[in-house]
Write a structure and sequence with these properties.
Strand content: 15-25%
Number of helices: 5
Radius of gyration: 18 Å
Shape: elongated
Strand order of the largest sheet: 1-2-3
CATH architecture: Roll
Helix content: 40-55%
Bound molecules: adenosine monophosphate
Distance between the termini: 28 Å
CATH superfamily: CBS-domain
Order of helices and strands: HEHEEHHEEH
CATH topology: CBS-domain
Low-confidence stretches: none
Amino acid sequence: MIVRDILAAKGREVATISPTASVAEAARILTERRIGALVVTGAGNRVVGIVSERDIVRILAARGAAALGLSLTEVMTRKVVSCVESDMISAIMERMTAGKFRHVPVLDGDRLAGIISIGDAVKLRLQEMETEQSALRDYIQTA
Ligand code: AMP
């Protein structure tokens, strides 16, 4: 299975935010949309970073309530690991495990084409395992 298979099922919408937005604004959007990360986009919709709930917890622990007023440029991760639609899901899961993050934006050239979360990847893997298991069961019963 490849990234395109997940996007075909879940859609290509990506929640984005400006680098000049505040930590409070990012927390509000994450909560409202019930998601774990926002892709930070700058001029021309180019990806300039990613901010996840983990970044917000970290900055709140370090700076207290004053962190809520900081701009995302001070808390986001700038070196974003991305993927393309033809990447294998197994490779994306390895990348997430090695980098200890749970979100990978999908790029089509410079354009943001979707996002894969660890939850999306696990859901697809479970479906694959169920399909394999039922094929094996059918095979045993007819053998
Ligand atoms: P997460 O597990 O996605 O909540 O993110 C954990 C940490 O990794 C946070 O500091 C994020 O900013 C960062 N992070 C999340 N996704 C990525 C990514 N695709 N590339 C680089 N860093 C990321």
